[in-house]
Backbone:
């Protein structure tokens, strides 16, 4: 066979063919498309390949149309000969861009780069697109001072640069653009004052500058913006007050200067804004009266003046504001009565006036003429009854009236208020029957009627409230009745409290009570046995049945409840012995069976032999340590005991002498080493038997009870108390003048109970020294485990657990409490590897009396915080974001909140997925992306742009992993 050998002619022919193909390919690409391909090559694209259709066709382009006109995000004119729009928003693009690629696109009218990860300096090449009408670069990470040159965009109508990292002064030059109608420079790091030139805009309708570092006084020149309809300039730190000139913006419909450090009175000139629909001036330091002239703003729908220092009454002139939907005046120093005209506002939906000094009765017609949805008048001095028509329109979902002097029966309209979700009436003087018909309340989730004078029993149809999570009717001594059948079967019920209510009868069977965590029924007249069906309540944390008339044996199944930590059965008529398997309960912290008819020996395990006698006294037939009543010995043991008595007599005498000497030494050490600072006192919380301070102090200095010598610093060590309980101990030195305030604060913390917070057990103190005792959990802390390889579900469980604990501190406890020292070493694990936060609030103890900024009247229902704790709350959120990154990367990204934003999110996500062995097609990848996004939101350097923990928990709770994690608990 003859082998073909190419000649020079053939090679030349082949080269000519390749050149022809290359030339035709180039000719097929127009310069505009070539420029966009150049732009594509300069950026980083995530795995979604959002610009994958930006390719050159293989065929020629005889019509000379622009190839890019068929690409996603590219908009051309009708003939496809000119590119007039480029929309690259939300395509996960990142990297640095110069903007030079856009220079050929001189006909471009709209450019949208929003919701991407572009970084570094703003591309000044964009300023050459002089025909631009809309420029949107929001939600990127452009940084550095804003460059000059934007005034070249003579036709610009909309400029949106929201949520970037710009620094330096605001660009005063932009005011030269006469056509500009929308300006959004919010959510960056601009500093200095608002330029007075911003009052020169000719056509501006919308301005948003909130969430920067702006200072100085608000320029009065802003009053010259006659065409402005929307102004947001809050969440900065200005000096001075609100310029009276702002009252000249006659077209203004929306004004928000919240959280801006404003002082002085509210100018009466704002009453001239007769087109205004929303006015937000909350979280400032405004003083004086609410202007009566606001009656002129009849278009007003939302008025929020909360968290200021306003005084005086609610103006009666507000009765003419017929469009008002939101009236929020909470957390001020207002007084007087609520004008009857407020009840006549037909559009009113939200009335928030808690934490003031209001008095008198609420208007009797409140709710009868408006679609009320949320009413909070708590912590005032209101008297009288609940207005009978409070829910007559059937839309009320939150009614918060606690800590007033309301009396009489509940409003009949509440019995059929099907929209009701949250009802808080505690700490008043209500009486009569509880008229709630739970069969008519399908959405009710939270009911607190405690500390009143109700009678007539708990409504028997409460078992039909399928969404009920929390029910508290404690301290209603005349309530009477029984514990309703089916109460434990409520699918979402977590807390049932009905102590001191004069209840009678038996406990219903415990069925389908898997979510139940707290049962409090102390000081009633309940009787009968505790059903073995209590074993169905697998997450029960606390059960207090003390001071009743229960009989029968102690159910052994109680010891099998893995979460049961507090069990108080004291002052009843239980018989039989203490089940030996109680010693095997790993979660049990407090067992109180005092004053019953128990008999036999206390189980010999160490947990019981060292337990304080107060947990067992009042049982005449009960014997063995720690009681002084020894159990009778068997006959063969008596003889043996006699023979051994003489042999050990001298040994016992010598030991007694040694014990006396050690005791004297310990007392001396306690007296002199502690500084002789007065008598020691002991406060015990729910979860710790009541014993003396001396018992506690001795255990600290016992060689057997203490792992380490008590430190001189504020570090933590372990100690075994006289009850046999191993606890963690924190030593805190406090100025004597502050100790009273510290005791009050620790008592507040000690009564706090939540699944993801470590329980405080006790507080031992003298004039200037304190020991805080809290649960010693068996599985170490996050810092020790952070580098251990864990699957994604385990990591998610840690993250969601920390989030729940923080959310409880920030939003669900009264008052709001920041953690103050959130880090890996303060996240500990219980026997089920459930994360719990330790040392929450401890940071503030040493100097508490000097700065008691956690105001006891801070409110949770509204989500508003005392101004002084904002920084601590926001730092908690930042630290949480850093912890997420640390958990997801097995400790590699530690304290990385300040640096992680420098890299594109897509790169970070790719690295984290790789570290967690998550492939590109794994459905869990989307969940990881959400968690990473939450971490980035929480670690934003501008505190006011960080989400609340309530928002964070909502984001984290909606993931698919949530279901997988539940299966592991």
Residues:
């Amino acid at each position: 066979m003859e082998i073909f050998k190419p000649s020079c002619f053939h090679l030349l022919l082949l080269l000519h063919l390749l050149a022809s193909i290359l030339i035709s390919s180039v000719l097929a690409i127009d310069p505009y498309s070539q420029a966009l391909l150049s732009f594509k090559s300069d950026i980083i694209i995530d795995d979604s390949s959002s610009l994958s259709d930006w390719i050159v066709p293989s065929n020629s382009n005889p019509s000379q149309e622009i190839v890019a006109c068929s690409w996603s995000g590219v908009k051309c004119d009708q003939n496809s000969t000119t590119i007039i729009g480029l929309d690259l928003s939300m395509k996960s693009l990142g990297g640095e861009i110069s903007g030079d690629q856009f220079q050929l696109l001189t006909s471009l009218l709209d450019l949208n780069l929003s919701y991407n990860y572009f970084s570094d300096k703003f591309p000044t090449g964009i300023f050459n697109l002089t025909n631009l009408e809309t420029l949107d670069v929001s939600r990127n990470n452009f940084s550095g001072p804003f460059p000059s040159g934007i005034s070249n965009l003579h036709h610009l109508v909309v400029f949106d640069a929201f949520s970037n990292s710009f620094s330096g002064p605001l660009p005063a030059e932009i005011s030269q653009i006469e056509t500009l109608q929308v300006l959004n420079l919010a959510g960056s790091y601009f500093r200095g004052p608002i330029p007075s030139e911003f009052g020169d805009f000719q056509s501006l309708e919308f301005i948003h500058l909130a969430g920067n570092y702006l200072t100085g006084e608000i320029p009065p020149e802003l009053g010259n913006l006659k065409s402005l309809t929307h102004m947001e300039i809050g969440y900065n730190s200005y000096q001075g007050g609100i310029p009276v000139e702002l009252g000249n913006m006659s077209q203004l419909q929306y004004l928000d200067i919240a959280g801006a450090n404003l002082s002085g009175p509210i100018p009466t000139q704002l009453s001239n804004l007769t087109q205004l629909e929303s006015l937000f001036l909350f979280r400032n330091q405004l003083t004086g009266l609410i202007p009566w002239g606001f009656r002129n703003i009849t278009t007003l729908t939302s008025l929020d003046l909360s968290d200021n220092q306003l005084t005086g009454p609610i103006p009666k002139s507000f009765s003419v504001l017929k469009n008002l939907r939101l009236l929020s005046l909470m957390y001020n120093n207002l007084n007087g009565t609520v004008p009857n005209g407020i009840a006549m506002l037909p559009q009113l939906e939200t009335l928030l006036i808690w934490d003031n000094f209001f008095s008198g009765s609420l208007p009797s017609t409140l709710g009868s003429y408006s679609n009320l949805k949320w009413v909070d008048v708590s912590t005032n001095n209101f008297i009288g009854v609940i207005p009978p028509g409070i829910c007559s329109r059937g839309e009320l979902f939150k009614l918060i009236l606690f800590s007033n002097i309301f009396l009489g029966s509940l409003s009949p309209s509440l019995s059929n208020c099907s929209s009701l979700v949250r009802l808080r009436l505690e700490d008043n003087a209500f009486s009569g029957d509880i008229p709630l018909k739970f069969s008519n309340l399908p959405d009710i989730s939270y009911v607190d009627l405690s500390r009143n004078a109700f009678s007539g029993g708990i409504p028997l149809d409460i078992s039909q409230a399928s969404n009920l999570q929390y029910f508290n009717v404690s301290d209603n001594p005349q309530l009477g009745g029984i514990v309703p059948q089916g109460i434990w079967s409520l699918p979402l019920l977590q807390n049932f409290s009905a102590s001191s209510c004069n209840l009678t009868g038996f406990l219903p069977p415990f069925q389908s009570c898997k979510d139940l965590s707290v049962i409090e029924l102390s000081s009633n007249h309940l009787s009968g046995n505790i059903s073995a069906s209590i074993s169905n309540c697998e997450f029960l944390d606390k059960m207090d049945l003390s001071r009743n008339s229960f009989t029968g044996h102690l159910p052994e199944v109680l010891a099998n409840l893995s979460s049961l930590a507090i069990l108080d059965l004291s002052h009843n008529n239980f018989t039989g012995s203490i089940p030996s398997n109680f010693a095997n309960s790993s979660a049990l912290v407090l067992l109180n069976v005092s004053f019953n008819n128990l008999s036999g020996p206390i189980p010999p395990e160490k947990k019981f032999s060292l337990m304080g006698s107060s947990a067992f006294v009042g049982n005449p037939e009960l014997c063995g340590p720690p009681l002084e009543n020894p159990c009778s010995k068997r006959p063969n043991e008596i003889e043996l005991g006699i023979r051994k008595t003489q042999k050990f007599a001298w040994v016992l005498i010598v030991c007694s002498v040694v014990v006396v000497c050690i005791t004297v030494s310990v007392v001396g050490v306690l007296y002199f080493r502690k500084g002789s600072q007065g008598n020691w006192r002991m406060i015990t919380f729910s979860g710790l038997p009541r014993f003396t301070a001396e018992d506690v102090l001795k255990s600290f200095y016992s060689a057997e009870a203490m792992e380490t010598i008590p430190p001189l610093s504020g570090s933590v060590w372990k100690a075994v108390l006289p009850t046999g309980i191993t606890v963690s101990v924190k030593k805190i030195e406090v100025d004597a003048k502050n100790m009273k305030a510290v005791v009050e604060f620790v008592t507040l913390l000690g009564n706090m109970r939540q699944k993801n917070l470590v329980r405080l057990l006790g507080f031992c103190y003298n004039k200037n020294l304190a020991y805080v005792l809290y649960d010693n959990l068996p599985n170490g802390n996050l810092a020790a485990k952070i580098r251990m390889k864990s699957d994604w579900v385990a990591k998610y469980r840690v993250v969601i657990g920390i989030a729940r604990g923080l959310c409880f501190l920030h939003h669900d406890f009264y008052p709001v409490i920041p953690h103050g020292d959130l880090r890996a070493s303060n996240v500990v694990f219980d026997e089920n590897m459930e994360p719990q936060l330790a040392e929450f609030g401890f940071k503030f103890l040493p100097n508490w009396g000097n700065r008691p900024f956690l105001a006891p009247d801070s409110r949770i229902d509204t989500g508003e915080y005392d101004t002084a704790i904002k920084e601590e709350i926001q730092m908690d959120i930042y630290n949480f974001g850093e912890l997420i990154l640390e958990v997801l990367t097995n400790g590699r990204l530690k304290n990385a909140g300040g640096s992680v934003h420098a890299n594109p999110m897509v790169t970070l996500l790719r690295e984290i997925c790789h570290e967690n062995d998550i492939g590109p097609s794994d459905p869990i990848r989307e969940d990881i992306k959400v968690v990473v996004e939450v971490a980035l939101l929480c670690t934003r350097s501008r505190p006011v742009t960080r989400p609340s923990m309530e928002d964070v928990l909502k984001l984290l709770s909606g993931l698919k992993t949530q279901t997988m994690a539940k299966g592991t608990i």
The two ends are 77 Å apart (CA to CA).
